[in-house]
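Hi V.,

Quick status before I head out on leave. The structure for the redesign project is tokenized and pasted below; the design run finished overnight.
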């Protein structure tokens, strides 16, 4: 099913979510605005904002809100980024403390204008969170840093609990969907993460609905398992605006269930798969389930 060019398609009935509301959400938005912080929850129009915030999980977007790349699936603004904000790590840590988060995800726009892609700001943010809120699990969702291993090491040396880099789609669709991205570069980043820091959990995510074929999805999964990626998330691509790529088709929840089961059989430690799943969707639950699955596997082996 191809989406009509320039037209918005009506979502199927299973693509529904309650809009975030209530005094708690309003107060948190006020806190973030007062600290001058951005969240992907808001910038990317995530359908799960209310549920995740109520769960003690939030995703902060550092390094500004303007991306140097022009990916055709992403709602974040494209263009020339602002001057680097060196106080941002401290403010993120303060927000994590005030919100009482138990699991924080730190991500960013692509900053190809910076020598290290902004890796040092990721590191400073991790360290600042550790100083103010030690019990919080810290997950980073990083760009590819244009394949710079030194930048990757800078982030890993700061000690995140989870290193996430989204593969997003199948190799054939990279040229049309991920401007400036490279499938092999993303695979190498995930593989190098395990080499540099074997104890750090690696994670990635894919969108379905851009025109991928079943055999291509399966091949990507096998590539990721080969690189010992622990957590995989699978969700439905939803077109942000008519400028973005159209939805090729909507996957039924049963199909997501199938792909989740397939991923577990292939060897992932945990797969989160569903129409409204996003990379950071209830990330604390993903991490907890990973630990449970790992412990069960260890006991079965013994």
């Amino acid at each position: 099913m191809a989406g009509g060019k320039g037209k918005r398609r009506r979502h199927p009935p299973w693509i529904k979510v309650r809009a975030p509301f209530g005094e708690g959400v309003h107060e948190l938005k006020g806190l973030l605005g007062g600290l001058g912080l951005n969240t992907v929850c808001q910038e990317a129009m995530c359908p799960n904002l209310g549920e995740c915030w109520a769960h003690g999980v939030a995703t902060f977007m550092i390094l500004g809100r303007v991306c140097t790349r022009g990916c055709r699936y992403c709602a974040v603004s494209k263009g020339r980024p602002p001057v680097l904000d060196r106080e941002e790590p401290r403010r993120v840590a303060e927000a994590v403390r005030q919100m009482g988060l138990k699991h924080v995800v730190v991500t960013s726009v692509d900053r190809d204008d910076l020598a290290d892609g902004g890796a040092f700001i990721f590191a400073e943010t991790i360290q600042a969170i550790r100083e103010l809120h030690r019990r919080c699990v810290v997950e980073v969702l990083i760009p590819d840093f244009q394949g710079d291993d030194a930048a990757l090491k800078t982030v890993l040396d700061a000690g995140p609990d989870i290193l996430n880099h989204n593969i997003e789609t199948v190799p054939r669709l990279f040229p049309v969907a991920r401007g400036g991205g490279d499938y092999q570069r993303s695979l190498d980043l995930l593989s190098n993460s395990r080499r540099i820091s074997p104890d750090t959990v690696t994670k990635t995510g894919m969108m379905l609905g851009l025109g991928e074929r079943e055999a291509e999805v399966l091949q990507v999964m096998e590539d990721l398992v080969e690189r010992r990626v622990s957590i995989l998330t699978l969700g439905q691509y939803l077109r942000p605006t008519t400028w973005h790529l159209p939805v090729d088709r909507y996957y039924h929840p049963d199909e997501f269930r199938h792909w989740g089961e397939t991923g577990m059989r292939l060897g992932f430690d945990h797969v989160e798969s569903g129409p409204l799943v996003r990379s950071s969707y209830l990330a604390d639950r993903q991490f907890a389930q990973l630990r449970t699955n790992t412990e069960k596997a260890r006991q079965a082996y013994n």
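Above is the designed sequence. Confidence is low (pLDDT under 50) at residues 1-6.

G. will cover questions while I'm gone.

Best,
W.
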